[in-house]
Write a structure and sequence with these properties.
mainly alpha; 0% strand; 56 residues
């Protein structure tokens, strides 16, 4: 699969997770859910970052 296509999918997934984290921060009383969503978003962004700089 094309690395640019994978990067685009990972970027969209990151934005969805980041938006979900913001919504959960204000809507849910359990702070752990927010932390897990933020951690997942950061992990996805790091994967995209790794793909960007290894495929040059």
């Amino acid at each position: 699969m094309n690395p640019d296509k994978i990067r685009n999918i990972l970027n969209v997934l990151f934005m969805v997770l980041a938006l979900a984290a913001i919504i959960v921060y204000f809507a849910v009383a359990d702070f752990k859910v927010f932390i897990y969503l933020c951690g997942g978003a950061i992990f996805v962004k790091l994967m995209e970052f790794f793909i960007r700089f290894t495929n040059r």
